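Pasting as-is:
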Amino acid sequence: MKAKKILTAILAAAFVFTCGCTKSETAAPTAAPTSSTAAETSADTSETLADEEIAALDEHQTILNNSFVQFGNTYRIVKKLRQMMAGEETVIAYIGGSITYGVGADSETCYAKRSFDYLAEEYGKGDNVKYVNAGISGTPSILGNLRVKRDVLNYDADIVFIEFAVNDGGEKLYQESYDSMVHTILEQENEPAVILLFNRTKEGHSAQDYMKQIGEYYELPMVSSADALTIELDAGRMTWEDYSNDSSHPNAEGHKLVAEMLDNYFETLKYRSMVDTEYKLKPIGKFNAPYKNAVLAEADYDNSDEHIQITDIGPFDKAAQGTFGFTKGWAYDPDSEGGAFKATVTGNNLFLICKRNNSDSMGKIEVYIDGERAKIIDTNDADGWGDPYAYQVIKWQSVKTMEVEVRIAEGSEDKTVEILGIAASANETF
């Protein structure tokens, strides 16, 4: 399309230009079109559009601009866009909860696929741009951090969008987990670019406040549908039902709007006169990133990482039925001879990922560290719906080697228990 050719030429010229500026701009854009299609419409038909149609286009652009939080340091994202334009294979990944998975739309119309399609069309050549959707419904950044290597980094992702604002709380564990995930991605050898996306619920819940602090700390691009929606809702120009059919998930039009907000970031980037010439990753996270580089062990784990060595699965000798995103776990066998699931773990923290449900059929387990009971986990959870849940067992400041045992709790001998994974990382904290 005509606009795409023109803007791509502008982009290529702008990306070659460097001014030595490394300070990120935070002011919202005011002039860039929302997409190449919008640019064509604005340029080719403005003389024939009715006043109300022009006003509608302007209002829509204002909504998109209100989602803009900051450019961030553009070095990595520009490098990856150049890579795409050169025809090199580029992997674009999206990690988050049910919104990223696509609830409210479908696999082709969710915001992630729409955003990917825009980037592949605007910057890709042929089929050199690959898509990874690592959204799992109902999961916060705690679990996201434990699985980011498996679900994102194993694909050598070049651009990673992170969306957990609706599923996260504000407690320290969420802050540290989100920080750890961001730091883990940023320190990969292929220097991925990271873009943060913040959504909200109908009631206004969003973990954006602390996530924004992390984005500012790492100088990352940030887009907030929460900000834009709040402005429109408070002004009465939009109802929640325009965006969503329930309390948290965008509907098809809502997903389209979120994708357009992400597209708007890249469109405004085309018109930015400054390109950052370097990016230096801070060695310590905003919240210390204590869980970065987590190792996740599942039933197919080969004990190749020294941080986790599984020595005995005890009564968990049945293949777990599992749940979405976690199908390689261990299930408790009531007919087993007992014993314990055992592992030697070297790290400063330990998580067990278990399947939970709101059902009396779900049982309890006891977790022992070096012979001392450290935690009781009840997988009969009022908030459970068959989802995977990460239970933190311990956290220490220093790295230790510990002997871990997981036993069926008394009274749960005839219950259902599934260990979906065991995870740990080894980081000295401060």
